[in-house]
Design brief:
The chain is α/β, with parallel strands linked by helices. It is built from 8 helices and 10 strands. α1 links the parallel β1 and β2.
C-alpha cells in the first residue's frame, strides 16, 4: 500500500482508552503530549469512569486533546474501536492509560509506517533494570508473515496494543472490529498487518508497561478452557482478515 495522505491537517492521532485510571493516567498523558507536534492529536475515549480520570485528562488544558465519553461501560475493545473511528490523522498510534512512552517513540513509529501499514515494537517494564525487554520483537521477523500468524494463533507473538500503530489506509480493513472480538484487539490488528503483508517490527521498546493488578492483559496463566476459547476467536479473526483483504 502507498503511504497515507492525511484526511485532514492532523498528522498523528494517538488513541487512548481510559477507565478508572486516575492513579496513573496523568503521567501517561504527559509522556504522550511531550512527543506530540502542533498538528497531532490525542483522542481520549473514557469508558464510563467513576473516578477522576476525565478531570485529570481535561486539566492539561491542551487543545490537541479531545475527550469523548461512553454513556455506558463498553469494555476496552469497543472503546479502542471508537477511538480509532474518531481519529483524524494519517498515522494512528494506540496507548494504554497506565504506561509511559519512551522518548522518541512517536517519530520512530511514524518512520516505520512510511513503508509498512502496521507497526509493533518491543515492550519494556517500568522500573526494570537496563537489559533486553521482557516482551521482545525482532526486526528480522517483520516480513515472515506466515510465521507471525502462526505465532499469534499459538500465543507466542508479543503484539501489545500499547506498542502498536497503523496507517490510515489500513483502517478500512481493521474497522469495524469483528463482532465476536471480546479481547485482544491488538492481536486482531497484528493479524491484519500480517495478512495484508504490511507488518513491521521495531526491536527497541517504545513504551514502558506498568505492571499492577488491574492490567487488561493478564499477568499470569489462564485456565485451559479460556485459552482454547481465545484460540478459536483468533482463528475466526484470521479468516475474517483474509476475507477483508480480498475485498479491500
Amino acid at each position: 500500500m502507498p503511504a497515507a495522505e492525511p484526511a485532514s491537517s492532523v498528522r498523528v492521532s494517538v488513541c487512548l482508552a481510559t477507565h478508572d485510571g486516575a492513579e496513573y493516567v496523568g503521567q501517561q498523558v504527559r509522556s504522550i503530549l511531550d512527543q506530540l507536534g502542533p498538528t497531532d492529536e490525542l483522542v481520549v475515549v473514557d469508558d464510563a469512569s467513576t473516578d477522576d480520570t476525565v478531570s485529570i485528562v481535561e486539566s492539561f488544558g491542551d487543545r490537541r486533546v479531545t475527550m469523548h465519553r461512553n454513556d455506558a461501560n463498553l469494555g476496552s475493545v469497543r472503546t479502542f474501536e471508537r477511538a480509532l473511528a474518531l481519529a483524524r490523522g494519517a498515522y494512528l498510534l494506540l496507548a494504554d492509560q497506565d504506561d509511559v512512552w519512551v522518548a522518541g517513540r512517536l517519530e520512530a513509529m511514524v518512520a516505520a509506517l512510511g513503508s509498512d501499514g502496521v507497526v509493533a515494537t518491543s515492550v519494556g517494564v517500568l522500573g526494570d533494570p537496563p537489559g533486553p525487554p521482557r516482551w521482545r520483537l525482532r526486526a528480522r521477523d517483520s516480513h515472515r508473515y506466515a510465521a507471525n500468524v502462526a505465532a499469534v494463533l499459538v500465543g507466542v507473538r508479543w503484539y501489545f496494543g500499547c506498542a502498536m500503530g497503523l496507517r490510515r489506509d489500513v483502517l478500512p480493513v481493521v474497522l469495524p472490529f469483528p463482532p465476536w472480538l471480546t479481547e485482544s484487539h491488538d492481536l486482531w490488528i497484528g493479524l491484519v498487518g500480517n495478512v495484508t503483508r504490511e507488518m513491521r517490527h521495531l526491536e527497541d521498546p517504545s513504551v514502558e508497561r506498568r505492571l499492577h493488578g488491574s492490567n487488561q492483559t493478564p499477568l499470569g496463566w489462564r485456565s485451559l478452557p479460556t485459552i482454547l476459547r481465545a484460540r478459536v476467536m483468533l482463528a475466526r479473526c484470521l479468516v475474517e482478515a483474509r476475507r477483508r483483504r480480498l475485498h479491500d
